[in-house]
Amino acid sequence: MKFNVQQIADILEGTVSGDPDIEVDKLSKIEEGSEGSLSFLSNPKYTSYIYSTKASAVIVNDTFEPEQEVDCTLIKVADSYKAFSKLLEFYQAAKLNKNGIENPSFIHESVSYGDGLYLGAFCSVSSNVKIGENVKIFSNVSIAENVSIGDNCVIYSGAHIMSDTVIGNHVVINSGCVIGADGFGFSPNSDGSYSKIPQIGNVIIEDNVDVGALTTIDRATLGSTIIRKGVKLDNQIQVAHNVEIGENTVIASQTGIAGSSKIGKNCRIGGQVGIAGHLVIGDNVGIQAQSGIGKNIKSNSNIQGSPAFDYGDWNRSYVNFKNLPKLDKRVRDLEKNKA
């Protein structure tokens, strides 16, 4: 996508200092700029780069006055950082501005969908699927039967949405996700083998949820695995059967949540956290990275460790742990002197 500098200035409500007809077709850091790229200057410590950058245009604050000649065209705005963020949003929206159904792809005759659908090549949409308006589904996505998808959703390449899944509005599901696979349910037999327990529930994802790449959310054994509105899941997270994650909770990558645990709203969970099954974690809980959760957590707690306990206590304990070799030596020296 190519835009000239004047078009960009109009979008950002800025003014042009230089050639308004220069075209740009990519974004870059100011220190990595190249011909045809657009960058921005916000942090004063990067000011020196504006005199050497190869970017064709740079967004700057309208208070910026160069101390020497610059080779690039300047777009002057009230706040260059906010303006660049706005431009990123515009750029993302332009990338997603696709419509129509590409071939080859398969859509069952019973499928219903709203205006503005984009369906990439090699997608498969099974029977009784309902898709809302302005939904963008990229290549190689499979959607099983009886799935419901709301308005303004984006499903990126290679995701798999299994049967009976319910997805709300403004949901983003990134590449490689598997939503609604069977939960991990097996019963032991007398001979030591295991029999699979049928998983006949579903997954419900409410509005404004983001699901990171390669994250898996299992269907419930009975009932629903529920991701409440506003939840943000990073890449490579495992959410087991019958888990419920409360509103606006944020979870970092490689976290695993075992079956039937309930996580409250507005929680912040770091990477590589392990949460055992059938637990209740309250609201506004902070869990530091690599913590192991084996018991219920009260609301407004901030914890760390494996097994996890109060974050302040953990820090104080860690100081003592680091000093254990010195303490051990002191004890041994005292025992020698006493002898």
From TrEMBL:
It holds the Pfam family LpxD. The keyword Lipid biosynthesis applies. It comes from the Bacteria. Its EC number is 2.3.1.191. Pathway: Bacterial outer membrane biogenesis; LPS lipid A biosynthesis. It catalyses: a UDP-3-O-[(3R)-3-hydroxyacyl]-alpha-D-glucosamine + a (3R)-hydroxyacyl-[ACP] = a UDP-2-N,3-O-bis[(3R)-3-hydroxyacyl]-alpha-D-glucosamine + holo-[ACP] + H(+). The active site is at 241 (proton acceptor). GO terms for cellular component: membrane. It is an enzyme of class 2 (transferase). InterPro entries: Hexapep, LpxD, Trimer_LpxA-like_sf, UDP_GlcNAc_AcTrfase_non-rep. The keyword Coiled coil does not apply. Keywords: Acyltransferase, Lipid A biosynthesis, Lipid biosynthesis, Lipid metabolism, Repeat, Transferase. Belongs to the transferase hexapeptide repeat family. LpxD subfamily. Homotrimer. This is UDP-3-O-acylglucosamine N-acyltransferase.
